[in-house]
Amino acid sequence: MWMPDPSCVNSHQHHPGEQGPAEDQAPTGEDLAALLTRVLEEAGMTQKDLAEKAGVSYPTLNSWIKRTRGTSRVAPETLRSIASAVSASGVKLTPREVFAAAGRPVPGPTDAEREARLLKLYRQLPEDKQRDLVRYAEAALKLSHASPG
C-alpha cells in the first residue's frame, strides 16, 4: 500500500511558542482559561453571556475556565466563535490568540473549490485507496498538531 510520508506535509501554521505578529499573540503562558477570564473582564461580559453568544453551553465554558475539562478537542469552529463573540463586544481577540491559548495551530480557511475537488477525487478512488487517503489525512493532521520540541 502506497502512503505519502506525512513528514513531508508542509505547514505554515504557527504553533504555541512560535513568534508571530505581536497583535496575534496571547500573553506568554496564557492558557485558554486565563485568556477567557481576562477577556471576559475586559469586555464586561459574564460567562453566560459569552456562552450564549458563542453557541457553547454554559457548563462547558465554565469547565474550561475552571480547568476541570480539557480543551484539546474543542472544535475549531467553537474556538473561532469565541473569538468572534468577544470581538463583537468591543475587545479585540483574534482566532490565532484563542487557538494559541488552547495549544492548537490555527487551521487555514476552507477553500470550497479545493474541498469539492478533494471530495470528487476521493469518490473516484477504489475503497481501499479511500481508506489509505483517510489514514494519510489523519497522520497529516496529527503531525500538524505536534508542537515543536
UniProtKB/TrEMBL annotation:
It comes from the Bacteria. InterPro entries: Cro/C1-type_HTH, Lambda_DNA-bd_dom_sf. SUPFAM superfamilies: lambda repressor-like DNA-binding domains (SSF47413). Residues 1-31 are annotated as: Disordered. Signal peptide: none annotated. Residues 36-64 form the HTH cro/C1-type domain. Pfam families: HTH_3. PROSITE patterns: HTH_CROC1. This is Helix-turn-helix domain-containing protein. It comes from Streptomyces musisoli.
